[in-house]
Amino acid sequence: GMPMHDSMPMNGMAAMHAPSSSPDALPPAGQPLATLPRLANRSTEAGTFSGVIDIAETRHALLPGAPTRLWSYNAGPLGPLIELNAGDRVAITLNNRLPEETTVHWHGLPVDPRVDGHPRDAIAPGGSFRAGFTLPDNLSGTFWYHPHPHGLTARQVAMSLAGPVIIRHRNDPFAGLPESLLVISDQRFDRDNQVAAHTPADWMDGREGEVVLVNGQYRPRLDVAPNETRRLRVLNACAARYLLLSLPGATLTRVGTDGGALARPETGLSQLLLTPGERTELLVTFPARVGQSLQLVSLPYARGKMMQPEQTAALPLMTVAVADRAPAAAFSLPAQLATIVPLGRPDIRRRVVLSERPMDHRMAGGGMMAMMKNMFLIDGRTYDMNRVDLSGKVGQIEEWEVVNDSHMDHPFHLHGGQFQLIARNGKPQPPSWRDTVNLAPRASLTLRVRFDTPGERLYHCHILEHEDLGMMGTLAVHA
Ligand code: C2O
Ligand code: CU
Ligand code: CU
């Protein structure tokens, strides 16, 4: 067990951090970036998508030596890309062949809560579930699906259950550009090449695997044409690792957030923070000289004042090499990408506070996990599946002020679709559609949202360990 002191202050946590050991062997680097397989559409009807996902244990030769047992969507390591069009009628059959219950949550999509993978709707081992939903006509962007069973989400995602969704729209300003989807995940292996078990420090800070993967590959290589402008869709599928993306030698232009295109591009970015669960769409123009190469890296980021960054130097994620190809034609960036109609005056205002209870030996009686179960709070409480924390009404505009009253960063996520980020720390923000936004310690954000379907929606910290420990609440939306 872990040594307990009389009243362990929050800043004792850094001391509890076991130094992250680098694995003895690493997967091979520098392989051409793989494209994830697409989920096959079994429907021949226009505007309809019907697919089947088997959720099962599989073995993968990730490291030299013994194969790694993973849990996979359609054999994995990552789930297939589900590529849809705005307005599609979708039905995905989920077959649970795992030895335990699971659910599949459609992160960022405005689906009916009854098919959104709520922990109450667990699919038993051997069971199946058909998730049917219709996409809005005006929705496009990069989304994802992952498990959401009660208390088991972090472990199941660590076992590799996660997959991307792309929704395309006929008014896509970048339809003609080359495009890469980068699903970034991380992994930690034990001595037998298996997915390492969570440690107490993992539960506290969130688990960061030392081996960071792009599309399931270790430091792959992407070949581009000279002078090429490419769209990169990036999904942070890590449980807790913050990505401070940077591409030294090129600047980043952000053109989209979780819920699709920004109204106006943000140009000249030297770095961009992408927290767990978040997606971004970037445009990058690569150099003109054949043979030149760049590194997509993640820069060190301290998740709160008391925490040491997990890394002290830039962490390479992927190499981009300018290949000997016909140079790309110059690309001109439109000034206006999309129209984001602002959600107007709110009908309801709420204030939601994220906090932590300081560790105290008096609570340690029930053991470490019991104590940690009461550590990460929303509005002073731990998640209870049978409790409604907030009530709302279909069609009403809600304004939430979300405040972080804790010592570390938490990415705040709300189920059931996209919200508009209105302000950060009181400062108005350019219009964007989001479903996951970081909150630094003492930070606040203001968001506006409207739900069109009744039912229960969850809101939680997207550090999956915090979610499992109960940093989550229920909003009941009434008809
Ligand atoms: Cu991606 Cu409730 O989460
Ligand atoms: Cu979600
Ligand atoms: Cu958190």
TrEMBL record:
PROSITE patterns (UniProt xref): MULTICOPPER_OXIDASE2 (PS00080)
Keywords, sorted A to Z: Metal-binding, Oxidoreductase, Signal
Compartments where found: Cell outer membrane
Residue stretches making up the Plastocyanin-like domain: 58-171, 202-292, 362-477
Membrane topology term: Lipid-anchor
Location (main, coarse): membrane
One GO location term (cellular component): cell outer membrane
Organism of provenance: Microvirgula aerodenitrificans
Sample GO molecular function, one term: oxidoreductase activity
Family annotation (InterPro entries): Cu-oxidase-like_N, Cu-oxidase_2nd, Cu-oxidase_C, Cu-oxidase_fam, Cu_oxidase_Cu_BS, Cupredoxin
Name of this protein: Copper oxidase
UniProt cross-references to CDD domains, sorted A to Z: CuRO_2_McoC_like, CuRO_3_McoC_like
